[in-house]
Amino acid sequence: MRRVAAKWVYRSEERLLDNAVVVLANDYVGNYYAIADDDMPTTEWLGGIIFLSSVDELDLPSFVTLDDLKCLLLDDEYTPRYAYHLSGIDLESKDSFPSHLLVKLEDFGD
Fold first, then answer.
1. Comparing C-alpha atoms, which of 84, 109, 87 is closest to residue 98?
2. Given 17, 35, 100, 110, which is the most exposed site by the fewest CB atoms within 10 A?
3. How far apart are CA 26 and CA 108, in angstroms?
4. Which residues contact 34 (CB under 8 A, 6 or more apart)?
């Protein structure tokens, strides 16, 4: 099990958590919640933005925008099973950036 935290965690376009923990178990999202509900033992601070998604494999162009990623990754209809991390991009950014900055999070095991 791996516990990671970020400044922002998107569950959907309408559900954005500020300062939240994502728990990964066998590379799947097991749980997510606000840091206020956690005492933070063994939690890895990643910062940036985490997207919780039902999308397993992505075929991204060389450059994307934050809005592109929201459209590709976020969906209210399906339960999120995967987590993707993005750092160095401001939440309000409209600029394009290299898509390799988005990394699928994995559980490194115990």
1. 87
2. 110
3. 8
4. 17, 18, 19, 20, 21
Closest CA to 42 of 87, 77, 3: 3
Give the residue with greater pLDDT, 41 vs 26. Answer: 26
Q: What is the DSSP string of the chain?
A: -EEEEEEEEESSSS-EEEEEEEEEETTEEEEEEEGGG---TTEEE--SEEEEES-------SEE-HHHHHHHH--SSS---EEEEE-S--TT--S-EEGGGEEE------
Q: pLDDT at residue 72 above 70?
A: yes
pTM: 0.89
